[in-house]
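User: Hi! Is it possible to get a structure for several chains at once, not just one? Here's what I have:
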Amino acid sequence: MNQNKNNIIGKKNPIFNHLLIYQKKYIFGLASLLLFLVPLINFFKSDSLLIGPESYYFLSHSALLQSLASHFTYETLIIIPIFLGLATLYLFFALVEKLNLSDKFTFFFLLLLVMSPAFIYTYSSLTANSFYFLLIIATLLLLMQEKKMFTYLAIIPLILATFFDVFSSLMLFVLLIIYAITQKKNISYFYLGVIVFSSIIQYVLGQPFFLGPFHAEKIIHNLISDFGGLSGVSFFAILLSLIGISITWKRKKLYWGYIFLPLLLPFYFFSTQIIFPISILILFFAAVGFVKLFERTWNLAPIKQITFFLLILGILFSTLSYLDRIDQLTPPGDMIETLTWISYNTGNEVTILSDESYGDYITFFAKRKAFSTLYEDEHTDINQNLLENTNVIGFISLLENQSISILYISKDMKKTYKDNFIILLQNERFKLIHSHGDYEVWAFSPKEA
Amino acid sequence: MQLSRTQKWLLVIFIITLVTRLILAFTVPNLTYDSYFHLRQVDEITRTGTPLFEDPLSYGGRTLHYLPFFHYLVAFLNLFLPLGLLAKIVPNVLLSLLPFIVFALSKKISNNETAALFSAFISGFLPILFTTNAFNPLSLFLPVAFFALYCFLNIDKRGFALYFLLSFFILSVTSSATFLLIVGFIIYFILSVIEKKKIKKPELELIIFSVFFYIWIQFVFFKNVLISEGARFIWQNVPTQILTQYFPQISILNALLLVSIIPFIAGIFVVYQSLFQLQNQRAFLFISLVISTTLFSWLRIIEFNLALSFFAIILAILFSLFYTYLSDLFAKTKISEFKKHLALIMVILLLPTTILPSINFAEKQNTPLDSEIEAFTWLNEHTAKNAKVAGLLEEGHLITYYAERKNLMDDQFNFIENSEDLFSDLNALFATPFETQALDITSQHGITYLVLTPHAQRKYGIKNFRYQTARCFKKIYDEETKIYQVDCILDKK
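Assistant: Yes, the chains can be modeled jointly so their relative placement is included. Here is the combined structure:
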C-alpha cells in the first residue's frame, strides 16, 4: 500500500504510464486548448483579441502584418502566434526524440511550459519570441539531420533568428556551442561566423541589443505571474526550480543548464523583455526538481501524495488565475474608441503626448505619432518632464517646442500625475475635445489667439 | 488517574496563568481596539455562515481579505455562549494552554522536567502575551504554532505526522504569520547542512509539504490582493505615516521587559553555545525560528507584537537548556551543594521579572472607555443608516461594530488604493484649525458625523475641534465624547 502511494510518477502507476506514452497527444491537446481559449475568452469579455502591447508594436511596424491586417481584420492575426506555438511544440517533440531526453522529464517540462503564463502570453500575442523560438528549434533540428543538404538549409532559420535583436543572436550562438559540446557534434565555424556576421550587420543597421521594452518593467512582478505580471511563471514553478537547481548541482549531465543562468539572469535585470527564455530556463530546472522530488521514496507516503496534488493544483491555479485576467491584457474598448476618434478627427501630422506605455496603441489605433514610447530613448526625459511639470509657462513652452498638439490622458495618468501636469490643464489653451469612459483627448492650441 | 508531581505542578501553572489572565480580562473594561474588527467578523459568520469579505461599512464599502478559521471557531462556540463572554474567555484559555506545549517542547530538547517546568511557567507569564483583552487570531496561532513544532520534532513517533498536518492546516487558515515557521524550517535545513548534521528524511518531507501547502492557501485566499498589489502585499499596504506604529523602533530595555529579562539573557547564552560550541541540533530549530523572526521583524514584514511574542516563547523554551546547563555545571563544580537551591533562586529571580511586568502590561492595555462605547452605541440609535462617521484610525472598528455606520478608515489597509491620502485627511480633520480645510475633507469623503473621544482629545491635545462653528458642525452629543453633525458642504465650483 505504502509502495503504491510512493509510486506516483513511477512506471507502475497505470494512469501516469498512459499519460507518458501518449504525452505528445495530451501536451499538444492541452496547448491547443489553452491557446484557443485566450481569443475565446477575449471574444466574450474584451474588445480586442490580441493581447499585450508588443502585438501592436509589430502591427504598426511590420509591413507584412499591416498588409495582412488590411486584407482581413487585425484581430484575425491572432491565428499566427497560435500556429507558431503549436508548430514550435511539434518541432520540440522531434528535437526531444533526437536528443534522447527522458520521457518523464520531457512530459513535466512541457506540462509546466504549456501551462505557464509565459507560454500563453508569447503564443497569444504577436511577439518576437514566438518567431524566434520556432526558428532556433528548426535550426537545431536541421543541423541534426544526417543528410548534408538539410544541414545547409539550417542557415535559413539561423539567419532569420538573428533578425530580432543582438541578445537573441548571442543566445543562439551560446546554444550552438552547448549543443556541440553536449552532443559531441562538430558545428562548423561557418554557422557561428554567420551568426556573428549577420548580427554585426543588423547592429550597424540599428538593431537594438534588446527589443522593447513594450511595458513598464518590474523585475519581480514580470517574473512571477501570480503577482499580476504580464506573463512570467507560477510561484510554485520558482520554488520547484530552486529544488531543481540544488539537485542539478550534483549532476554533471545537466551542467549546461548553468551556463544559461549567468547569461540570462543578469540580462533580465536590464530588460525583462527576455522573460520567455528566462521562464524556459526556470521551468527546465522546475521539471528536474519535480521529477527528482517525486521519484524518491518518501517515508511519509501520504504526505507525498498530498504534496503532489498541491503542486498540480498550485500550477493549475496560476494558469487559471492568469486566464481569468487575460482580458485585462487587451487594450480596453474605451481606449480603442478614443484613439480611433483621434484617427478620424485630427490632422495626420499631429504628435500626441501621453504615458510612454500607450505609445504603440497610439501609433496603431490613432495612426498618429506618439511623442515617446518605452523603447525609444530620444524623448523619454522630455516626456517625463512634461508629465511631471507643475509650471504652466514651462509646460506650454515645451509643448510648443516639441510641436505637440494632442494630449491623451487615461484614468491611471490622472491619478499618477494628479499633482503634476493635470492641474495645468485648467489653462484656457487646453480644451477637452473628446472623452469616452476613462480616457480623454485634450487639444493644445500652440499659439494664443 | 494518578498525576505525577511534575504534572501537578504543570496543572498549577496552568490554573494560575488562566485565573490571572481572566481576572485581568474582566477587570480591564472592554477589548483592545483591533478586537472589534474580529468581533464583527465572528458576528457576521454566526448570522450568515460566511465571512464579511464584501464589507459595506469599512472605508465606506470595500473588499476584505483575511483568513477566517479563528472567526469560524469562535462563531461555533457562539452557538453555546454569548460573544461578549467568549471574546474575553477564548483568547485567554488558548494562551493559557501555552505552558503545556512549552513544557513538552522544553522537555524534548532538554530532557529535564524541572527545567521544562520553569520554561512552562515563563511562557505563562510573558509580559508581551498579557494583552488579556485582545480578541484576535494570534491567541490561536501561537499555541497551535508551537504544537506544530512539537509534532515536527516528534515526527518519528506514530500519529504525529497527522497531528502536524492538522495543526499546520489550522495555522495556514488562521494567520499569514505561518511563514515564520516556513522560513524557520528552511533556515533549520540550511543550518543543519552547514553544520553537517543529517536532517531526518520525514522532517525534510514535512518542510517541503509545508512550503507548498502554505503558499497554496495564501493564493486561494489572497489571489486578488497578490495580483493587484504584487510583492507589496507582504507589507500589508500600511500607510508610511503609521509604519512606525506597526513596526516601532523599540529600545533594548523595553524589549527586555516585554520578553522578560531572565529568559532573554538565558536565550542569548543558549544560542551562542548551541551554534558555536555544542552544535546542539535539537536547539537548531528554535534558533532558526529566532533568526526568521528577527529577519522578518527587521524587514518590517511582521508586526512588532507578533515578532516579540514569538521570540519570547522561543526564549522561554531555550531557557530549559540554560537551566540544564547551570544545573550540570553546579554538579561538576565544588559548589555542587548549591545545585539544590538552583530552583529556588530561579523562582526568586523569575517571579518579579515575569509576573509583575505582565500584570503591569495588562493594566496598561489600550482599550476604549465605557463612555466612548456609549457614544458609538448612541450613533447607532440616532443617525441615519447611510451616515459616514470619522473617528480616530483605531476607532474605525468601533464605528462599524457599535455604531454600525460607515467609517472613513480603519486598520485593514489591504486593497485600499489611497490609504496614505486617507490617513492624511483623517489626521487633518483632528489637527487643522481651518474650517474650509475640514469641510473640504468632509465633503470629499461624504463624512456626515465627526466623533471626538477622550482618547482623541488626549492624542491631539484638544477639547474641541479647533475649526468648529455651530453653523457647519452641530454638536449633537455632548458627554465625555463629543459628536458633531456636519451641516455644510464645500462646493468647489
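The interface with chain B takes residues 218, 220-221, 226-229, 235-236, 239, 243, 293, 298-300, 302-304, 306-307, 310-311, 313-314, 317-318, 321, 325 of chain A (CB under 8 Å). The two ends of chain A are 89 Å apart (CA to CA).

User: Great, thank you!
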